[in-house]
What we know:
Layout: E1 10-19, E2 23-32, E3 37-46
Antiparallel strand pairs: 1-2, 2-3
Amino acid sequence: MPGVEPTEWVYVTQRTLWADDSFCVEEAVAVTADGLSLGSARQLRRILAVAAG
Length: 53
């Protein structure tokens, strides 16, 4: 990205916006130390059950 050095630190937040027993929606945002938004992502993810035991 122009104006951003590849060695600079980037602050990334990731959170779950919504979830139930089968699905969840997650969101991530990346910004530079100066507050420049680099991008965002949102995904719908299926939750698979894990067998007890």
